[in-house]
């Protein structure tokens, strides 16, 4: 396990993932029932973009850095930027929020978050971030095992009918991770069928994703789509040219919100040849 998210925090892939995550949270919190959110690969929760790791790659400058310089943007991007500003108000001008921080920020007093992180130092840092937030339980454990252990969610007497699961693995062993994630989604849908599931994935060459997308379309969700942002042309297998999120049981009108945000992300973060797509794998009936 060599992956450290501190090198990549705030890059184009984080921007896409975090915009989508907040849009899902906002759609779900429109109804009053309590929510449960499970972040299977949570990272350390909070990053500093002036830290050595982030400065060495400079990835955040081409992600959140570029977005912050653009004039007024569509509602989902404005929402994301407001969340980043809230994080900076609380933790300093160079702070950048990880997914569990954004979940805790977007969810309410009666909602609950479980954040899993396997790497001991990252898990310790995550614990520190949430030491005073009783809504967030930090687990140093395998996120895939947590899906089996924690779903369907029940805390004390509360059974959570609604909620979301974010699966954001490091893809160190690329092909195996796609297999693990799809198997985990299939099992989790049996345990908690009505939840919203979001799986992040990297894109080098899009055509090599076809087997994954075909299998994703067979998952027993009510509906599903993929939202992708390519910041480089799809012409090199050697680098991450973009990334995507597979959304299962997406909230109503999430596609409309993202269809507004994705072209703006291409315009703001993309190089020549950048593009976006939003493809339904299984349309809502
Ligand atoms: N979701 C985070 C965010 O958006 O801020 C970033 C997570 S990063 C891409 C992936 C994290 O998963 C790393 O911190 C890594 O240590 C952790 N990890 C790797 N394998 C894991 C596993 N099997 N279970 C839980 N965490 C794992």
Automatic annotation (TrEMBL):
Record GO biological process: rRNA base methylation
Ligand binding (S-adenosyl-L-methionine): 18, 41, 99, 117, 142-143, 168
Keywords from the UniProt entry: Methyltransferase, RNA-binding, rRNA processing, S-adenosyl-L-methionine, Transferase
Principal EC category: transferase
A Pfam match: RsmJ
Domain of life: Bacteria
Keyword S-adenosyl-L-methionine: yes
GO cellular component terms, A-Z: cytosol
UniProt EC number: 2.1.1.266
Active site: 168
Iron-sulfur among keywords: no
Marked site positions, Interaction with substrate rRNA: 3
Catalytic reaction(s) noted: adenosine(2030) in 23S rRNA + S-adenosyl-L-methionine = N(6)-methyladenosine(2030) in 23S rRNA + S-adenosyl-L-homocysteine + H(+)
A single MF term (Gene Ontology): 23S rRNA (adenine(2030)-N(6))-methyltransferase activity
Function according to Swiss-Prot or TrEMBL: Specifically methylates the adenine in position 2030 of 23S rRNA.
HAMAP family: 23SrRNA_methyltr_J
Assembly: Monomer.
Family: Belongs to the RlmJ family.
Protein name, per record: Ribosomal RNA large subunit methyltransferase J
Organism: Marilutibacter maris
């Amino acid at each position: 396990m060599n992956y450290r998210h501190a090198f990549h925090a705030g890059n184009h892939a984080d921007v896409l993932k975090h915009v989508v995550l907040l849009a899902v949270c906002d759609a779900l919190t429109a109804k009053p029932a309590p929510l449960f959110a499970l972040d299977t690969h949570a990272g350390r929760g909070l990053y500093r973009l002036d830290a050595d790791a982030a400065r060495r790659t400079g990835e955040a400058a081409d992600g959140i850095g570029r977005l912050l310089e653009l004039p007024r943007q569509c509602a989902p991007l404005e929402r994301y930027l407001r969340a980043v500003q809230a994080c900076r108000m609380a933790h300093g001008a160079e702070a950048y929020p990880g997914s569990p921080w954004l979940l805790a920020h977007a969810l309410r007093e009666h909602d609950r978050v479980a954040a899993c992180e396997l790497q001991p130092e990252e898990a310790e840092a995550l614990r520190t971030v949430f030491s005073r937030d009783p809504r967030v339980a930090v687990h140093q454990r395998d996120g895939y095992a947590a899906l089996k252990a924690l779903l369907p969610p029940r805390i004390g007497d509360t059974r959570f009918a609604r909620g979301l699961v974010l699966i954001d693995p490091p893809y160190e062993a690329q092909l195996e991770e796609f297999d693990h994630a799809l198997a985990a989604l299939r099992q989790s849908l049996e345990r908690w069928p009505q939840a919203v599931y979001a799986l992040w994935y990297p894109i080098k060459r899009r055509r090599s994703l076809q087997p994954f997308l075909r299998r994703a379309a067979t998952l027993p969700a009510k509906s599903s789509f993929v939202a992708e942002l390519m910041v480089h042309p799809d012409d090199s297998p050697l680098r991450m040219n973009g990334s995507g999120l597979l959304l299962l049981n997406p909230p109503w009108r999430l596609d409309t919100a993202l269809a507004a945000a994705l072209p703006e992300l291409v315009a703001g973060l993309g190089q020549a040849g950048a593009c976006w797509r939003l493809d339904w794998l299984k349309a809502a009936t």
